[in-house]
Amino acid sequence: MTDLSRLPGAALHHWQWQSRAACRALGPGRFFHPAGERGEEREDRDRAAKEVCARCPVRAACLEHALRTREPFGVWGGLTEEERRALTGRTARPLSV
């Protein structure tokens, strides 16, 4: 779960970058994998998401947000959750049963 205590607050300037995001009208399906997705299908979805991120004018702000809030899922700022964890040195949380 996103660490809500790390969210920047309600001030518009904290969130305005999202209105310029290349993904804004694309929906979440390209950026968040369905439960159990593995292998080539997941790699293809991640690659398609990263292509959108590569041309996004607010990629840096998006990645900064994901790192600051410790966003646990999806492609943000061109990085998958695994790539963000590797960047910050955090490990994946164990799945609860």
TrEMBL record:
Required co-factors: [4Fe-4S] cluster
- Asked if the Swiss-Prot or TrEMBL record annotates the protein with the keyword Zinc, the reply is no
Which modifications occur after translation, per UniProt? Answer: Upon Fe-S cluster removal intramolecular disulfide bonds are formed. The Fe-S cluster can be nitrosylated by nitric oxide (NO).
The 4Fe-4S Wbl-type domain sits at: 22-86
Compartments annotated for it: namely:
Cytoplasm
Matching PROSITE patterns, A to Z? 4FE4S_WBL
- The lineage's top-level taxon is Bacteria
Q: Identify the residues that bind [4Fe-4S] cluster.
A: 23, 53, 56, 62
Q: Which UniProt keywords apply?
A: 4Fe-4S, Cytoplasm, Disulfide bond, DNA-binding, Iron, Iron-sulfur, Metal-binding, Transcription, Transcription regulation
Q: What is the cofactor note?
A: Binds 1 [4Fe-4S] cluster per subunit. Following nitrosylation of the [4Fe-4S] cluster binds 1 [4Fe-8(NO)] cluster per subunit.
State one Pfam family annotation.
Answer: Whib
Q: What does this protein do?
A: Acts as a transcriptional regulator. Probably redox-responsive. The apo- but not holo-form probably binds DNA.
Query: What's this protein's family per the entry?
Result: Belongs to the WhiB family.
What name does this protein carry?
Transcriptional regulator WhiB
Organism annotation: Streptomyces katrae
